[in-house]
Every structure is written in C-alpha cells, then in structure tokens.
UniProtKB/TrEMBL annotation:
It comes from the Bacteria. This is DsbA family protein. Pfam families: Thioredoxin_5.
Length: 268
C-alpha cells in the first residue's frame, strides 16, 4: 500500500485516523509505504492572499475533521519551505521504515499542534532526538545524496502513478500482475476496505481491536478523534474512556486549539 502525502497538507494529517484503523484491522495483510509528494517548491515571501487562504484551509479542515491543525502557524511562520522537511523524512527513513514513520508523525505534531517551523534545521534535529533516532547519523543523512535520491524517487513514483492529489492510496498485490488500484482524497473507510479485498482477491475480516491502553501504548500520542474512529465510538464515549485512564494516571491530556490529544505515560 503506497500512501502519497504532502507533509504540510492538513487533509493528509486529518487522514491519520483512517490509516491507524486500516493498520489496526488489516495491517497483517499489507505493508504501508509513505510516499512524500506535493509542491516542494519554496514558499518564501508568500503573498498576504496566500497566507489568508492557508489560514482558512487549516481552520476549516480542523473544524470538519476533528484533527487539530492550528492556522496560527501561518501568522508566526509565513515563510516555510517544504523541501527541508521532506528531505528530513527521507533521511529518517534511512534508519528504517519504523524510524521514518515515527519521524513523520512527530514532524506533523510539531507543525499542526506546536506551530514550529519545520523548515528550520534546528527543529528537524530536535524531532530526530524526540523519536530516538541516531542524531549524528541523521544530520549526516540530511545533507546526503542518499536522502535526496530517495526523495526524488518518491517524486518520480508520484508522476509514474499519475497521482495529482493528496492524500492518495495505491494498492498492489505482489503475487499477481494486477495494475493496482488508486483511491484519491476519499474519506470513506468502507471504500478502502472494499479496495483492499479487491486487490487481495478474497473477503477478509478485521482483526480484533486492541484494548484502549494497548493502543495508546503503541502510538504514544493520539487525538481523541483518532481513538473514536479506530474504536467506532462516539466522541462522548471516547472522552469518557480516556478520562478514566487519565484519572488513573495512565495518560495525560494535552489540549490543542481544536480538540485534545492524549500522551501515554510509561510505567516503571
């Protein structure tokens, strides 16, 4: 499963609950490979009209999806280039796919929640520290031909598969010559289930859901919306279940401009 995303795209960020649920229910049937794409040209010296458009886009996406993307980012960091962070994600992936996935998630938390400028090298290195990468190796890879080559490979794959919107998913079955199935910018979970079964060629049943605390332990930091979506709960029930764990000092609530996130507390 190829997941085409722009690291600065709020719609891609709001797609996180869908990816978590697909992995939770059907992850043993596929391997997820994020592909970094989007407009990687510099956004330095953006026009006031462009900034207003971004603020409105982030605000509306957050309100519609429940995944916070703080539009005030564009008031404090209007001059942002996506090229450095895209290279950083590929540099992190050189330490393994899991390392790259952790890094990608933390990058977007810095961007959409903390309003940190992710085109600044200092912040990119701090993120590497936060997700326990080999920081010295990461700093070397950040300026390496290997990271640049990997990013250009993603951009070439985007063109080859004719992906022109994000988020998009392309599914392949390695065991046959199936051309692949592309789904673009669709927020319909049942559609992804049907597509996965079509590519696999048989009906498959979702796995049993993990316990809430196990889910939180695995992901460490999640939005209320992500929990509600994965567990098929109402927001009211989700809030209630999370508060129980919070009262027992198992998780900590982190308030965002839109909604809340929950941080798992390590037990000794």
């Amino acid at each position: 499963m190829y997941l085409f995303i722009d690291p600065m795209c709020p719609e891609c960020w709001s797609f996180e609950p869908y990816i978590k649920k697909l992995i939770s229910e059907y992850g043993h049937y596929f391997k997820l490979r994020p592909i970094i794409t989007g407009s990687l040209s510099s956004l330095y010296n953006p026009t006031p009209a462009y900034i207003r458009e971004k603020i409105n886009d982030w605000d509306q996406t957050a309100k519609m999806t429940g995944m916070c993307c703080d539009p005030d980012y564009w008031l404090v960091n209007p001059e942002t280039s996506p090229w450095p962070v895209s290279l950083a994600i590929k540099a992190a992936e050189l330490q393994g796919q899991r390392a790259g996935t952790r890094y990608l998630r933390k990058v977007r938390e810095y961007l959409f929640l903390s309003k940190k400028n992710i085109s600044e090298i200092e912040n990119l290195v701090k993120i590497a520290e936060r997700v326990n990468l080999d920081v010295e190796e990461f700093q070397k890879d950040l300026h390496s031909e290997a990271a640049k080559h990997a990013l250009l490979g993603d951009l070439n794959l985007t063109r080859e598969m004719e992906v022109d919107q994000t988020p998009s998913i392309v599914l392949f079955n390695r065991e046959d010559e199936y051309d692949g199935l592309k789904i673009t910018s669709t927020f319909d979970y049942e559609l992804y289930e049907r597509a996965l079964m079509e590519v696999i060629g048989k009906h498959i049943s979702p796995s049993i859901k993990p316990s809430l605390i196990d889910f939180l332990a695995e992901h460490q930091f999640v939005a209320t919306k992500e929990v509600a979506f994965v567990f098929d709960w109402s927001m009211k029930k989700t809030e209630r279940e999370l508060l129980k764990l919070s009262f027992n000092n198992r998780i900590e609530r982190i308030h965002a401009k839109y909604g809340s996130f929950w941080m798992y507390k390590q037990t000794t």
